[in-house]
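Q: What does the assembled structure look like for these inputs?
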Amino acid sequence: MLHKIIGLTVRDVRFPTSLEQHGSDSMHTDPDYSAGYVVIYTDCGLNGFGLTFTLGKGTEIVVCAVEALAGLVVGKSLEAIVSDFRGFYRLLTSDSQMRWLGPEKGVIHLATAAVLNAVWDLWARAEGKPLWKLLVDLDPKQIISCIDFRYITDALSEDEALDILMKAQEDKQQREEEMLKEGYPAYTTSCAWLNYPDQQLEQLCTDALKSGWTKFKVKVGADLKDDIRRCRLIRKMIGPENTLMIDANQRWDVAEAISWVSSLAEFKPLWIEEPTSPDDILGHAAISKALAPLGIGVATGEQCHNRVMFKQFLQASALQFVQIDSCRLGSVNENLAVLLMAHKFQVPVCPHAGGVGLCELVQHLILFDYICVSASLTNRMCEYVDHLHEHFTSPVVIHDARYMPPKDPGYSCEMLESSVQRHRYPEGDVWKQFKNQ
Amino acid sequence: MLHKIIGLTVRDVRFPTSLEQHGSDSMHTDPDYSAGYVVIYTDCGLNGFGLTFTLGKGTEIVVCAVEALAGLVVGKSLEAIVSDFRGFYRLLTSDSQMRWLGPEKGVIHLATAAVLNAVWDLWARAEGKPLWKLLVDLDPKQIISCIDFRYITDALSEDEALDILMKAQEDKQQREEEMLKEGYPAYTTSCAWLNYPDQQLEQLCTDALKSGWTKFKVKVGADLKDDIRRCRLIRKMIGPENTLMIDANQRWDVAEAISWVSSLAEFKPLWIEEPTSPDDILGHAAISKALAPLGIGVATGEQCHNRVMFKQFLQASALQFVQIDSCRLGSVNENLAVLLMAHKFQVPVCPHAGGVGLCELVQHLILFDYICVSASLTNRMCEYVDHLHEHFTSPVVIHDARYMPPKDPGYSCEMLESSVQRHRYPEGDVWKQFKNQ
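A:
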């Protein structure tokens, strides 16, 4: 069967998370977790679902960008796409006129992610497998053929990439079984959003410890005294054995980052996340160097906009934890390139998740990373946030603070149609209700 | 008078330049020079005009982004904006929800440029001066107050920036008079677009030499044999004394760039422009290092998306010519930061221009750079392309291959309303005509 794509729709879906300060940090004080939500329709009745994550305002711009890309997708068959996925990736990212709007960054790249996520979902459904399993079963050569190596060959050649995948083939069956049995380790960001009062933080932390969580992330960066108080509180609650990470969401300049984080060193954070501009490779390198003697690593990636940037972060030793994002990079294709580069540079990947749908998507990528690339769990864990999973047809399953591998075919980002309808912006019932208040 | 902003409109204006291969290069084979064109209206009848440049498809996405920003502009007064221009810049670039779409890159930043260009135009008109003269006459402290130093203080502090401006105050009167009399040196890209046949190239080159041009840029990167033939042809025509630059528009990976340009070294190009990804700071640094012994510099910037990237290009010695763009960076505000950083690192600024409106806009910035920042013309020149100037109310004036300082109040980017109407996409007469063919 050919699975000819005969239509593509995109909708602006927003959740009013800012009402309860979920997701608040030092730079994003009132996010409404949202998505540009894509459905592609085929002539044989099978559909593909994809999304890119946004924070509310401006989602309509991403929707507009998806509509601009739709013409490059509709009319093609799934089989034609996946038989030259690198070519299709480049068709979307290197359109002679549209690449000026990026290239491969910002709105146009978020739109590319949404569209390609839907294509990957469709492929996995057509194969009757969850996406991670589709990837695990693909021939390494076909994996390579999905990746656009343009601009990264100075760090990773196709041959090197193939070699990495071939080496991991040997024991992959064993790791797949391990994952199916035990799941992939996770950490939680749900306890300590910046604007949560201390009492709420304590309560959430208590509950999380009871549920078996051992790794916790705290938002910092707005006020040093507050940060010291909150870090002290959470470190006291979780004890010295558990893991603490801190996240500044790009709040500081380079010198300020070094001095601020040094003031929090007594709380033994494993990493400082996004200490400064996501574009500042050399700044992150300087911060990494300064904090290394304190035993604090630098993590970044949720706003690292493409493989060329990740390449340089790795080349410059500017991060010690690679945080891939399933919706900012150009879908699975570009994330594969980053996973392989991270392996070559021997830097662990700890994906960014949360928002809406990010956990559902990225779990597939990190499962593939463990089974077929890194073959290691050392210093590795995937972010988890306990919000909005109820809107998905195949929500994540967490057991004992671990992601259990999804079993349903696809990329796990199909939303309940009723949720989509209620949260469409501005016409859904949820938003009409605010308008009428 | 307060100049309260009471409205903002944005239109999608496109010129069918691809029909004659104007603007064609190795990555952008068929650009239709276009703009997101903004008008802001005040309660006292004075309007401000601004634009951002695009290549055709996708301009509607930029229009959508401008509309999303409009709410942050309408209702404010010009005086309130310019009394805290840094704050206003940050309001547009750091909106808690919208910054996720960038931050400060891609579509959302192009839209920011269009809006802020219109605000600067309004300010210059309100002062009755061309923009360059407004800048030249501003107190250095007020110039500094327009710049967002976030993320660049490790390269340039406010005090250092002020110091640079103060030092240049002394002889600025003399340089202003020099510019008014002699103009700012330019080079031409009009002769050698990639898809022009050799005969056309020869004819254009002959004409340009007659008109006094001495500096020429050739597009390269698609086919090495073609490049050798074209470079040989143009070098023969312009002779050994004139200046040749080559431009690959991001076509190569790092190793390929070094080998390809080495093959063209015999034609003595002053620079290779955009040899690889605009995001690849470390790649440009490697290319710079490899080509230095051949006497070839690296130029880049037209797709360098913000001051954080320029900062690193300078820190890493990754370019020898800084090519600012008036419509990709966050308008005058962010370009001021780049001019000052370039001066500190002693790298000459040679602006990107061409497209539609880019020459009109950027001439103001480079005049300010000479009069108030660099005080030098060594290795400096501004790009010029002879297209589409007829659509502006105050088109550039070129005498003897030099930009003559504009005299009309404003930022020179007001289009003839008749041109806007005819070229509106898709409803303008020019585009209806193609539809009917």
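Chain A touches chain B through 61 residues (CB under 8 Å).
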